[in-house]
Amino acid sequence: MPRSPHSRKTRPSVLPALAMALSVLAYLPALPAQTPEPTTTVSVSLPTEPLLVQINQVALERRGPKQAIIEYAGDAGGGSYTVLRDGKPVQSGELRPLPAFTEWSPGKRYFGVDFSAAEQAGQYQVDVRIGTARATSAPVPVRDNAVFATTGAQLLGYFRRSRHTDESDRNLPIFKTSRRVDVWGGWQDAGGDKGKYLSHLGYANFFNPQQASMAAWVLAYGAHARKALFAAHGLQAQVEDEAFWGADYLHRILDAEGYFYTTVFDQWGTPGAERMVTGYEGAAGTYNTGYRSAFRAGGGMAIAALARASMLAKATGRHGEFEGAVYLADAQRAYDHLRQFNPQYCADGKENIIDDYTALMALVELHHATGQSRYLEDARQRAASLMSRQQADGGFISDGGSRPYFHAAEAGLPVISLSAYVDIEPEQPRRQRALDAIGSALAHELKITGSVANPYGYARQRFQLTKNGKAEGEVLEGFFIPHRNETGYWWQGESARLASLSTAMVIGGRKLAEHGAAGYGLPREQAVYAQDQLDWTLGRNPYGISMLYGFGGKNPPTVLESAGEMFVGGISNGITGAVGSDTGAGITFAPGPDSEQWRWVEQWIPHTTWMLLAVMAMSEDEH
Questions:
Q1: Which pLDDT score is estimated for 77?
Q2: Are residues 326 and 443 in the same domain?
Q3: Considering 143, 176, 209, which residue would you say is the last residue of a domain?
Q4: Is 310 found in the same domain as 191?
Q5: CA-based radius of gyration for the chain
Q6: pLDDT at 153 over 50
Q7: In CATH, what number is assigned to the domain containing residue 399?
């Protein structure tokens, strides 16, 4: 969902897309109340109240971590709190001061309230008094499988609302060729972008996010591997339908030669731009011939999705337009092709860490689907390559040199792919090597996040700034993605990144220990980290905004010009470092001008994709 600020000012009317979205609502559950109203001018500042109680506004797990963060701008040295369940006090005490933190709000002090021990279901609020000031949090329901039970139907509904059904996509040209192909179906990428992407930003080499192919895999995996969870909430048919919709699209964009088309693109709806299968580069969306997907450009996850969809079809006797055997044949043919040609499809001609972990996911799913030993052997090689990129402190490097791995959408995928590999590896020494790598990676995430005052527990990252188009120089650390990076212009909120790290901590953490007592089957430190990342997106952040539209007391504003329509179940990009900060230091959300609001407000398919996977990981199957 990269954007050119100039193209956003002339984006065509969204009314046809709005009509399409409304047409599918009859198939969906009743929607929660929507609080935001469309606006023409938006600027969102940090709240100025002297006392604020920030909390996850959507749902908290009954047996998981439950914390509120208090921001205070007065003179009193301390205060007290009361936790209310259904309006009645159940816990009270003195506020716990947190380490001094001034990077985002100089002059504020922070306190924490932990009510994890309150395990009875109900609606909770935290009431706080400091001196003469008093504030009460938004209400939050507490229950089992909390976020999935509360939001699952609408997270799934987001994909249905985002389906792209324009018939013109059945006959589109391929850039610089005389060919025309059927690329109908799939999902629009974002609220203001009707393009369809397996991945973008390939020209920058280290920023490829997994987009439509990741969505297709998560849906197929959920429908197949977590059937009991979806069925318990009456969502099995819905998730199967969406999984097959995604698999059908992947079949259509698989070229006869064996590669997937990376993007269907029209320069973000720029008037006069021809919609076609093409690669593109930069803020201007300049068309190029880079439309053949490498593993890292969505090809790996597309293979994984098709292999899992074939298993789903076999298990259910259902399928989409195409049969399960077709999905599996596609996956095998595409893997064989990329195994031979992948470096040629990489912008710089060299594989990097993203190729490793996406190819590893493809191989794991192919092994699950076929049992063939050749996929296990290749998975071992990919896992070894991925682990060779790990440094002594547990962090990863992206290339064959020293560039640290940092990613705004899928920072948890290295750990998730190694965890998936552990499930197919029968040899204990190889399993243990992967488990050690997982443990080291998770320890790194905990250490870097906790190495500075960090009241919200926001996952920090290390990075290099870009000089002459290449990341080089001192390795830095910070909260948000640096604005001076190899893409030349792309930075945005990181809702997907946070959910991916939460997923990695849950899935990876469970591989390392039989059981933990702090929720999600994890030791407390890991459980709190996983919860912190979701809590930020669901309202426990300095702006008190739930980025999940239709849920929580306050949602992002609607800015049609820049960010397009807002779908219930969609998740906005989120909070970033301050505008003008090369390193992404400071904090801001939707400061304007409106043409730039996509960076914070726009909904993007990876955000809901990763949230759905995270809440699936956190949930127990219900029988």
A1: 86
A2: yes
A3: 143
A4: yes
A5: 23
A6: yes
A7: 1.50.10.10
For the residues 154-159, what does the mean pLDDT come to? Answer: 98
- Shared domain check, 199 and 97: no
**Which has the minimum average pLDDT: 18-32, 34-48, 465-479, 515-529?**
18-32
**Is pTM beyond 0.70 here?**
yes
Both 169 and 208 in a single domain?
yes
Across the strands, what pairs with 113?
68
Task: Quote the CA–CA distance of 568 and 621 in Å, as a whole number.
Answer: 25
- Checking if the pLDDT of 25 tops 60, the result is no
Q: What is the mean pLDDT of residues 74-99?
A: 96
Residue 596 parent element (H or E): none
Predicted local distance difference test score (pLDDT) of residue 622:
65
- How many domains, in total, are found in the chain? 2
* 184 and 63 assigned to the same domain: no
Question: In terms of Cα–Cα distance, which of 346, 343, 342 is closest to 203?
Answer: 346
- Residue reference for tokens 């000089």: 467
Closest residue by Cα to residue 158 from 530, 596, 502, 547: 547
**Same-domain status, 149 and 95:** no
- Considering the domain architecture, whether residues 478 and 589 belong to the same structural domain is answered as yes
Q: Which residues contact 151 (CB under 8 A, 6 or more apart)?
A: 58, 59, 548, 551, 569, 611, 615
For residues 24 and 41, the answer to whether their CB atoms sit within 8 Å is no
> How many Cα neighbours within 13 Å face the side chain of 465?
12
Q: Residue 135 contacts by C-beta under 8 Å, 6 or more apart in sequence?
A: 49, 51, 52, 53, 70, 127, 128
Report the C-alpha gap between 119 and 65 in whole angstroms: 10
Is the pLDDT at 477 greater than 60? The verdict is yes
- State mean pLDDT over 264-286: 95
Q: What is the pLDDT of residues 358-417, one digit of tens each?
A: 999 999 999 999 999 999 999 999 999 999 999 999 999 999 999 999 999 999 999 999
Cβ neighbours of residue 109 under 8 Å, at least 6 residues apart? 71, 72, 73, 97, 98, 100
* Buried residues in 211-237 as b, exposed as e (16+ CB within 10 A): bbbbbbbbbbbbbbbbbebbbbbebbe
Inside any domain, residue 372: yes
Question: What do you get for the CA distance between the two ends of the chain, in Å?
Answer: 39
Mean pLDDT, range 453-481, rounded to an integer: 97
* Residue 534: DSSP 8-state: H
The reply to whether 272 falls in a domain is yes
241 and 104 together in one domain: no
Phi-psi region of 460 (alpha: psi -120 to 50; beta: other; left: phi over 0): beta
Give me the amino acid identity at 526. Q
- Residue range 491-527, pLDDT digits in tens: 999 999 999 999 999 999 999 975 555 678 899 999 9
68/139 Cα distance (integer angstroms): 11
Bridge partners, 397 (sequence order)? 404
Structural domain range at position 128: 51-143
